[in-house]
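Thread amino acids onto this structure.
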């Protein structure tokens, strides 16, 4: 079946998690290209900063994506604000937790699940009716390469990101034959605040690293900038892709999990160990 192309430039979009990282990158890119942007985040100050850097029409909304009722209220506000059909809904907000399963703190895992999975479901349910009424537009849900591969000390994150992938794939089948699409985004490592803002009670690898050191290590090995990630995501949506891999490392995860669904980590552990070694050398450690 030929893919439907979906121009984004100049068309209104909604983005959650727009106060930082990939969400901010998407808002900046699309606003620069003439799109009116409705942007939401739980971080009011960060959201203000994003909005201050945009030149076109913008609707800002402080929102906890885990709050289903507030997502519905926000969707009503966006509907009333829309100057033209809504081209895309980016359910992008997310957080990180790093812990072994043995040491997992249930409240941390619950916090992550409520944002990374329920937040995506809430956003989809709230905004899908707008797209279905128009019979156009894309629901773009952010999973991760950790939604392709299970990684140690990332059980809550992987659980939520695999769930985003399953939920979005199921939605895609329901939307077959309509003008609305469902897209899953699988970023590799992107240099954002995600590790710094995540919850870590102790170094799960037992190396005694502080949260700050672990965040710095993540940022050193992450291969892609949020601006580049935003470009790749927008290009993928515009080309009508159902699944968007972001960054060269995302392609490696994709290939390895296809070729060796049970042994991919044998290779990933070596590749990631080498990347960490290079990063530590670069930092003079
Ligand atoms: N950075 C990476 O390497 C990477 C890799 C794969 C997937 N992702 C995913 O990309 C998405 C964006 O993350 P990022 O890397 O830009 O991180 P980031 O921390 O820079 O941005 C995440 C944004 O989400 C917001 N947020 C957190 N909780 C929220 C809530 N309850 N309601 C509304 N907003 C909330 C934060 O305030 C922040 O502005 C996330 O879903 C993340 O899981 C990131």
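Threaded sequence (285 positions):
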């Amino acid at each position: 079946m030929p893919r439907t192309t979906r121009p984004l430039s100049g068309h209104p979009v909604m983005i959650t998690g727009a106060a930082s990282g990939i969400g901010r990158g998407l808002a900046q890119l699309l606003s620069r290209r003439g799109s009116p942007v409705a942007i939401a985040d739980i971080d009011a100050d960060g959201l203000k900063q994003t909005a201050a850097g945009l030149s076109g029409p913008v609707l800002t909304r402080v929102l906890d994506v885990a709050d289903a009722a507030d997502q519905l209220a926000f969707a009503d506000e966006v509907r009333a604000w829309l100057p033209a059909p809504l081209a895309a809904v980016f359910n992008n907000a997310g957080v990180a937790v790093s812990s072994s399963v043995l040491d997992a703190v249930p409240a941390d895992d619950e916090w992550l699940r409520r944002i990374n999975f329920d937040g995506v479901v809430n956003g989809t349910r709230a905004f899908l009716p707008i797209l279905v009424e128009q019979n156009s537009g894309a629901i773009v849900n952010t999973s991760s390469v950790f939604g392709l591969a299970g990684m140690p000390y990332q059980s809550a994150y992987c659980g939520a990101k695999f769930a985003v992938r399953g939920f979005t794939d199921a939605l895609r089948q329901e939307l077959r034959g309509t003008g609305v699409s469902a897209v899953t985004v699988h970023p590799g490592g992107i240099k954002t605040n995600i590790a710094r803002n995540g919850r870590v009670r102790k170094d799960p690898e037992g190396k005694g690293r502080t949260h700050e050191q672990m965040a710095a290590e993540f940022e050193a090995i992450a291969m892609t900038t949020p601006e580049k990630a935003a470009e790749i995501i927008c290009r993928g949506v515009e080309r009508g892709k159902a699944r968007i891999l972001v960054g060269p490392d995302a392609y490696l995860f994709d290939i390895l999990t296809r070729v060796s669904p049970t042994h991919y980590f044998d290779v990933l552990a070596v590749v990631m160990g080498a990347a960490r070694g290079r990063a530590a050398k670069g930092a003079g450690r």
